[in-house]
Design goal:
- By secondary structure, the protein is α/β, with parallel strands linked by helices.
- 40% of the residues lie in helices and 23% in strands.
- Strands 1, 2, 3, 4, 5, 14, 15, 16 and 17 form a 9-stranded mixed beta sheet that branches. The chain has a 4-stranded parallel beta sheet with strand order 6-7-8-9. A 4-stranded parallel beta sheet has the order 10-11-12-13.
- Strand 11, helix 9 and strand 12 form a beta-alpha-beta unit.
- The chain starts with 6 loop residues before the first strand and ends with a helix.
């Protein structure tokens, strides 16, 4: 092929291994990715890409595996500032006794901006290119992500009672619709409805949300069946389980994202599968709060899409998706009492394509395929904990640590370059985190 016949590419990235996630379980050796106009234009052997493409830039990584950027399907980014502030207590006491009082004193646009900066920086350094966020002042999170070049889905929080962001559920819904209008054409920011939980949102706003979600074609992101107590209270108060209430209100469907989903019966799993509804597993948070266990393998076998999330750093206490991926794989085996449950390739799918599906973004992200956005993480396997490399996918699921992520691209733009943040000021972020540490200390004195 002559120089005149070469295809233009903005960037070529090559590595010893590429795990595209789709097709499932595939490992490509000595391949390269060609990127053009923010999307993947080709995946082929290195020699083929070199022969066919003229590139403006190239990155050759000799000890790495390339994977899709990780997709964190549930979190509360600003709560990174509350890391370690309410540990070793159960969910109800954690939420009502510690978190809500602190939020009433401190949550503001400034707090959310600083917390989102901290969370986004942490996620980028760990290989995450997209996350779903449920927190107040979501417009601040959008601005942070646009500045950082990272994808976010704003699951705008909806509660019946007044918060720092709104007076009631109706105002929350109205603000969500306005944010949807503002960002509906954005490549980086999408919007979802985020009713907090069945016990904090009444029937009328939930019905409105169901109708609007269908009209706007956006997800509904809700904490669901997080604890046994939640279900017992629902049965005592109205004689039906929370998931049945969602069904009765018309919320079950492919747009519904059920976060946590512990305490599910077989019939409820079948109901989720029949309606194409999604589950987000947050293993670290559930274990730390002793909230219950999600039966991932049973859901998988029933046909439910199971995604993965970190939850907030106030109940995790980090935003490390590799840690969640590994814990999900091992915990899933213990819960199912089956060493073959939640195999390595499926755990990786939970953290990538399954999370993208839950968020309605799978046409554009979640796997390395021609035509999708070039959201790519490069993981250095030349570390003592990941050699010898007998099985690349096994290393990703059971051995890789987040600090082994050296490069990260979102839409072909470099967010992390050889371990250094490219779009964020690390010293400023740490300075703001220290500011809030002092503010919390003064409040508690």
């Amino acid at each position: 092929m002559s120089q005149d016949q070469l295809i233009e590419a903005d960037l070529i990235i090559s590595a010893p291994w590429i795990v595209p996630v789709i097709p499932s379980g595939t490992v490509l050796e000595e391949h390269a990715l060609a990127i053009r106009d923010r999307r993947i234009s080709a995946i082929a052997p290195r020699s083929d890409i070199a022969a066919r493409y003229h590139q403006a830039r190239s990155v050759r990584l000799d000890h790495h595996v390339l994977i899709p950027g990780l997709v964190n399907a549930h979190g509360h980014s600003a709560m990174a500032l509350m890391r370690g502030i309410a540990d070793d207590i159960p969910l109800k006491q954690w939420l009502e006794g510690r978190i809500w009082p602190l939020e009433s004193q401190h949550v503001s646009p400034e707090f959310v901006c600083d917390g989102a900066l901290l969370a986004v920086a942490e996620m980028i350094t760990g290989g995450t290119t997209c996350f779903a966020d449920m927190y107040f002042f979501p417009e601040q999170v959008a601005k942070v992500c646009l500045g950082a070049g990272m994808r976010v889905q704003l699951a705008c929080p909806i509660l019946d009672f007044a918060t720092a962001w709104s007076r009631n559920a109706d105002e929350c819904i109205s603000k969500t619709v306005e944010l949807y209008k503002e960002y509906r054409d954005s490549e980086l920011v999408s919007v979802a409805f985020g009713p907090h939980a069945p016990y904090t949102v009444s029937d009328e706003p939930l019905t409105d949300i169901a109708n609007l979600a269908n009209e706007l074609k956006v997800p509904v992101h809700i904490h669901m069946h997080e604890t046994a107590q939640e279900i017992e209270d629902a049965l005592a108060n109205e004689g039906r389980r929370p998931l049945q209430r969602m069904a009765d209100l018309g919320l079950l469907g492919p747009k519904l994202v059920n976060v946590h989903a512990t305490q599910l019966t077989e019939l409820e799993m079948q109901l989720l599968a029949e309606h194409g509804s999604n589950v987000v597993h947050c293993p670290s948070s559930n274990l730390k709060l002793a909230s219950g266990l999600c039966e991932v393998e049973a859901l998988r076998n029933t046909g439910v899409n199971v995604a993965l999330g970190t939850d907030g750093a106030a109940s995790n206490n980090d935003l490390d998706m590799f840690g969640e991926l590994q814990l999900a794989a091992m915990l899933g085996k213990a819960v199912a009492n089956d060493a073959q449950a939640v195999p390595a390739f499926y755990a990786l799918e939970m953290a990538t394509i399954n999370s993208a599906r839950a968020m309605g973004l799978a046409e554009d992200i979640g796997s390395l395929e021609t035509g999708k956005f070039a959201d790519i993480a490069a993981v250095n396997l030349d570390r003592l904990s990941t050699v010898p490399i007998n099985n690349v996918i096994s290393q990703l699921a059971y051995a890789v640590q987040s600090h082994q992520v050296t490069h990260l691209w979102c839409g072909g733009d470099t967010l992390l370059n050889d371990g250094e943040l490219e779009t964020l000021d690390l010293q400023y972020i740490k300075q703001r985190a220290h500011h809030w540490q002092q503010a919390f200390r003064q409040t508690q004195e």
